[in-house]
Amino acid sequence: MSRSKFVNQKSILGWVVFVAVMLSLPLFVGTGVIRTFVFALYLAIFAVSWDVMSGRTGYISFGHPFLIGIGGYTSALLTYHLAWPLYFTIPIAVLMTMIGGTLFFFPALRIRGTYFALVTLAFMELMYGLVQVVAPELTGGTRGLSGLTAIVQGAIPNYYLALGVLLVLAISSWALVRTRIGYALSAIGLDEDVVRSCGLNVTKLKLFAFMLSAFAAGLGGAMYIHYLGSIAPRGLFDIGFLFQILVACLLGGAGTISGPIAGAFFLTFLLEWLRPYFPGPERFLIYGMIALLVYVTQPKGLHYLARSTFGRVVRITKPKEATW
């Protein structure tokens, strides 16, 4: 058996185990833990959506909450002011995220490195200011909007809903990166000029990755605000929210799909574990220090740590061939 087939079989087995564990989880844990998992799942959705673009192509975006905010505010405004049903507003929110994000970000895709990151950060700050100043009677200004319609009621239904969305996005992304387009996107992250010299349209490839990222971010943003039942600019465009998405990807392992999911789970439960001991702002300081320590000791992420550990276990337990 070739090495690539063996790696694919291990990956498929890993996804099967993950799905089985997550589906059966509500049978073994309480409602409080399930609610924590819901927040972890949404953070994982945002991390995966960021990883599709930035983790593959190497174009680090600091404006991802900008995309999440477009999806969230579009659905919130349509349901709050026009009372449109969610099966209309959420698809419209996703479409508006893809269109609005493309109009703003497409010019930025022509620049690289630090300049791209700064431009995307500027977009997020611009959105933060516009929501508060332009038509505050519609957006709710700094207070935002509350009393939004819920998609489903109860912790367990919301858990399975968020889990279903995450699995569809993650497995679809995992399958995509194993196609020629996925290999081309990864090659852009290694050396964009080489990809261009091979005759491939780098701009179209980057735009394709961005559209996928915007689709996932818009969908996650629209569903997240209906789970919360409210939306406010401080919650979506706060630098702390951006920090959580980036750290989840970096800790888990950017460019791996499963890594950002692991990072999102780790960060969410780390905050919850620290809450009883440090209920104040110092909790976020300790949280940041632990995240930094993990990243320094394991710069490739939890994904590579788990994979290397599994490889060592296999080598230790594998029977040695007899020598004659």
Structural class: mainly alpha
Largest sheet: 2 strands, antiparallel
- Shape descriptor reads globular
Across the major sheet, the strand order is 1-2
**End-to-end gap:** 25 Å
Helix run count: 15
Query: Helical residue percent?
Result: over 70%
Unreliable stretches (pLDDT < 50, length at least 5) are none
Q: Please tell me the overall pLDDT.
A: 86
List SSEs in N-to-C order.
HHHHHHEHHHHEHHHHH
The total domain count is: 2
Rg to the nearest angstrom? 21 Å
What's the total number of strands? 2
Approximate strand percentage: under 5%
Describe the secondary-structure layout.
Blueprint: H1 3-24, H2 31-57, H3 64-82, H4 86-105, H5 113-133, H6 136-139, E1 145-146, H7 155-176, H8 180-190, H9 192-197, H10 202-228, E2 230-231, H11 233-236, H12 239-252, H13 258-274, H14 282-297, H15 302-317
Antiparallel strand pairs: 1-2
Helix pairs in contact: 1-7, 2-7, 2-10, 2-12, 2-13, 3-4, 3-5, 3-10, 4-10, 7-10, 8-10, 12-13, 13-14
